[in-house]
Amino acid sequence: MRHLRLFQYIDAIVREGSVRRAAEKLYVTASALDRRLQDVEEELGTRLFERHARGMRLTAAGEIYVNYIRRHIAESQRVQSEIDRLQGMQQGRVALAVSPALAMDFIPNLVREFRQQHPGISFAISVVQHEVAIQHLVNYDVDLAVIIAPPKNPDVFDLAVVNQPLLAVMDAAHPLSGNDSLRLSDCLQYPLILPSVGLTTREILDTALQPLGRVAKIAAETNSYEIMRGLLPGTEQIGFVLSTTPYYRKNTQSIVYHPLNTREIQSVPIICAQLRNRGLSVAAAQFSQLIMQVMENIQMNNGALD
To answer: In terms of domains, do 66 and 135 share one?
Structure first.
């Protein structure tokens, strides 16, 4: 499949931004790679790249051609996956882009469950903000995106959506720890540990805080939910996480979780998405089925709790 290898060469040049860096990634000489590119440009009768001192940039024709080859590469991978299916899904790879809020337990639990049934399937997981995740889908970098509140994109199709509440997290001895449900305004009496600016959960919190007309006392900001939880024990600080289980998180001896009043702060949509009209590999399709099943169970349990 020499044409597929050539497509991969050109795709590498686009991703690396230069022939030299792409050649290093591909373990070929830069001169050989540049020659292959020139051959393609001569065959097409047009330049695919503008060559600059700082690297390579796609021309308008190059944009069209790269979209074509990426669709071809993805389809070739799907066909290979169908062939592998005859061997009982003993091998394969699933590439995911996931929101930071889902990287703590939701995605690890799903991947662990899937690999117990299909140990030959490997995963490539990128933890990124939702705009980047959508771009990864569009660029054929990932098979699926599991993200919260993403921007709409006509090229992206939502496979499943479930709305989940934000939870206030605190030390078990916190003055508010005995409350079953909390108002966001109650939390403002105490120092807060907020998600970093740019994260979706932070955007939702900022939107909910504005009408309250009170300034939050920020103890820390972090893009790591593990760091946030680690800062809570022995303090009156309050953090915030997205509920990603069918039931509210189980409290521990040191940390407790409480849902926030939905009249003050909206629930957050978790979305599993794929690129529209892209055929998924067998492994990716099977994993998407697991995600949809779990999200359906979450939705059903949410309904039972209402």
So the answer is: no
